[in-house]
Design goal:
Blueprint: E1 7-11, E2 18-26, H1 30-35, E3 49-54, E4 60-69, E5 80-87, H2 89-99, E6 105-107, H3 112-119, H4 125-136, H5 140-150, H6 153-177, H7 188-207, H8 210-218, E7 220-225, H9 232-240, E8 258-264, E9 267-273, H10 283-298, E10 301-306, E11 324-328, E12 345-346, H11 355-370, H12 381-398, H13 405-423, H14 429-436
Parallel strand pairs: 1-6, 7-9, 7-10, 10-11, 11-12
Antiparallel strand pairs: 1-2, 2-5, 3-4, 4-5, 8-9
Length: 443
């Protein structure tokens, strides 16, 4: 079992070799471990100081900028030390060799610095999850969404709702316990239900942003579908700007699903190349067709490629209105002719004609899906589930008019408890291992 009283250390910067490597320590031994590496007294708190780093035999390892962050005013809430050394594998290895000689010091586990920050009250779970998302952010919109969580804005919203629930329960308790007192109005609880109805509306509105947040965080899922040899793999290569899919003139070359992530206008887009859909007796190809159909049915958007002027007969797809873009491919092989009404556009991968128009259509679809949604939205399924519980409990309290006030107050208590589980204020021990496993070593 990992001892949280140990002093932990890790490389917190990128892969070596690098220009600079940042080594982080946290725990009670951190200052003394730094003292064992440098000459002279420890530097002043939060002031970078250039020091010579030596091993236990006095031999120079490197020169480094060192900083000390005393407890509790540090990232983890413990005494922390950072060393900015040259990003050499040999330098980092030599420093870690010195650290390993200390009893009670050990290498950090993945996410352990952030876990200590949570345990010491420096961050709540929503902020921790936002930090994890920020570390993994690949697009501008993912970064913005993560910042709203990691800086505490989303937690502030949920804490504010929890405070309103607590105040409502306090008013109800006042009416129950002090109904005969002159300074407690008889109808004070009636005012509570007006406020709770308003809160219910806010939660409902907040939950409408869940789908938009999911698209931003996890990416828009696009499936390229169509019969064999209509140009799906060629289009995937053209959109990604590299040869990620094998392209041949042989029908049925693509047998499985190939995914590529793109950054389109600041949004993450995952494009899936699928097997050509047709009747076949080949067992492997038949499985590929089944997977293609399944991918199309679960995708946020289906780009249906057709290299003829009419809809093919063998699609096996359930065409859902609003989810499909019909594209006539290989337009460079045709005479100029009016585009049939069922097609959104014509394109040629060979000449590049229509590619920008297709990207614009995808971007329009994302804008329509996301809309003007606020970045203060429930990002994870865990958040959505607890918010739905909260909404249901508040709704139950509102719909229990005429029942005992104590019962209605209990519904509000359960609502506040569900909110507390989002931020980690209430019994979330079983979640911690899952959440912190998303972090890299050194964070």
């Amino acid at each position: 079992m990992i001892k949280t009283t140990d002093t932990i250390y890790a490389l917190s910067s990128g892969a070596l070799p690098a220009g600079v490597a940042v080594i982080r320590l946290s725990g009670p031994l951190a200052p003394s471990m730094l003292q064992g590496l440098i000459d002279g007294p420890l530097p002043d708190s939060r002031k970078a100081s250039l020091r010579t780093i030596r091993n236990r035999n006095g031999l120079v390892i490197d020169q480094a900028l060192v900083l000390i962050f005393p407890a509790p005013n540090s990232f983890t809430g413990e005494a922390c030390v950072e060393l900015q050394v040259h990003g050499s594998r040999a330098v980092v290895s030599a420093i870690f060799e010195e650290f390993s000689s200390y009893e009670g010091a050990r290498p950090a586990e993945a996410g352990e610095f952030s876990q200590r920050a949570f345990e010491n009250g420096k961050m709540d779970l929503v902020e921790v999850e936002g930090l994890a998302d920020l570390l993994h952010a690949e697009t501008e919109m993912q970064r913005r969404l993560a910042v709203e969580q990691s800086t505490g804005k989303l937690s502030g919203l949920y804490d504010g709702w929890a405070d309103r629930l607590t105040r409502a329960r306090a008013f109800i308790e006042a009416e129950l316990d002090f109904a005969d007192e002159e300074d407690v109005p008889d109808s004070v609880a009636n005012q509570v239900w007006v406020q709770m109805a308003a809160l219910l509306g806010e939660i409902d509105h907040h939950l409408t942003g869940a789908h938009s947040a999911e698209i931003i965080r996890d990416g828009l899922k696009i499936a390229l579908v169509g019969e064999p040899n209509v140009g799906k793999s060629s289009l995937l290569n053209a959109l990604s700007g590299r040869d990620v899919a094998i392209v041949t003139d042989i029908a049925g070359t693509t047998r499985d699903i190939l995914n590529v992530d793109l950054n389109l206008g600041g949004y993450l887009v995952t494009v899936s190349d699928t097997a050509g859909i047709r009747e076949t007796s080949d067992a492997v190809e038949k499985e590929g067709v089944r997977r293609a159909v399944a991918k199309a049915e679960t995708a946020d958007l289906v780009i249906h490629l057709i290299d003829s002027d009419s809809i093919p007969k063998q699609t096996n797809l359930t065409l859902i209105s609003g989810k499909h873009i019909f594209v006539r491919s290989k337009s460079d092989m045709r005479d100029a002719a009016p585009l049939p009404s069922e097609f959104s556009l014509a394109l040629s991968v060979e000449t590049g004609h229509g590619l920008d128009d297709l990207k614009s259509l995808i971007k329009d679809h994302i804008d329509n899906s996301v809309g003007s949604a606020s970045m203060l939205a429930p990002v994870r399924q865990r958040h959505q589930k607890r918010l739905e519980e909260t909404r249901n409990y508040v709704s139950d309290a509102l719909q229990s008019e005429g029942r005992d006030l104590a019962i209605r107050s209990e519904y509000l208590r359960l609502a506040a408890s569900s909110l507390g589980r989002i931020t980690g204020r209430v019994d979330v021990e079983d979640l911690l291992g899952v959440i912190f496993s998303e972090f890299c070593i050194g964070k």
